[in-house]
Amino acid sequence: MALEGYAARALDPRLQHQAHRHADVEGALHGFAWTGHDDFAENPDGEKNLYNTRQPADDVANCLGPWSAILENAGGYTPEAAKAAALQVLPDILRYDRTKPATYPNGRILTDDVYSMRFAWLTHGKVPPSGLKPHDDLLAQFPYLGPPNP
Questions:
Q1: Largest Cα–Cα distance of the chain, in whole Å?
Q2: pTM (2 decimals)?
Q3: How far apart are CA 111 and CA 50, in angstroms?
Q4: Cα dist. 16→25, 38, 89, 116 in Å?
Q5: Domain assignments of the chain as residue spans, ordered by start
Q6: Do the Cβ atoms of 114 and 103 come closer than 8 Å?
Q7: Distance (Å, rounded) from C-alpha 37 to C-alpha 34?
Q8: Nearest Cα to 40, choosing from 113, 95, 114?
């Protein structure tokens, strides 16, 4: 998804983006994924479908405890650090502050290796970025993606 807008005209330099993906199931639209931080939709309690029926405004109440526990166990965070790390992505809304450089987690740019950044976050830096390099054929204007690879 690429978003372009007239953010420069907004009074507040901070923007927030969150989308709900839907699918047609037997003629009816059903929500199946909230996408602020796409890879965050996999819940530690294994209740992805339940998570996707809830609203992002309830994410802190519903997810802070389980995600803090995951960060303590998987990443070796202290309880206080785990809570602070979880609050970086809760609620599941992608934030962008135009007064700061645009790179994940302050928005996303096409060359951000978000999954490597997320694994480093999840493991408290024990799994460093992979060194994966972005495409070098991106266009300067929408649709940004270069020609398909043969």
A1: 49
A2: 0.69
A3: 32
A4: 29, 14, 12, 22
A5: 7-122
A6: no
A7: 8
A8: 114
What is the distance between the alpha carbons of residues 121 and 75, in angstroms, rounded to a whole number?
8
Q: Is 77 exposed, middle or buried (0-12, 13-18, 19+ CB in 10 A)?
A: buried
Contact present, 17 and 100 (Cβ < 8 Å): no
CB 31 within 8 A of CB 20: yes
The tokens of 113 are what? 């290796």
Q: Is 9 exposed, middle or buried (0-12, 13-18, 19+ CB in 10 A)?
A: exposed
Tens-digit pLDDT string for the chain (150 aa): 444 444 444 556 666 655 656 566 777 766 655 555 555 545 566 666 677 677 778 888 988 998 899 899 989 999 999 999 999 888 877 778 888 888 877 877 888 888 888 888 889 999 888 787 877 888 888 888 877 766
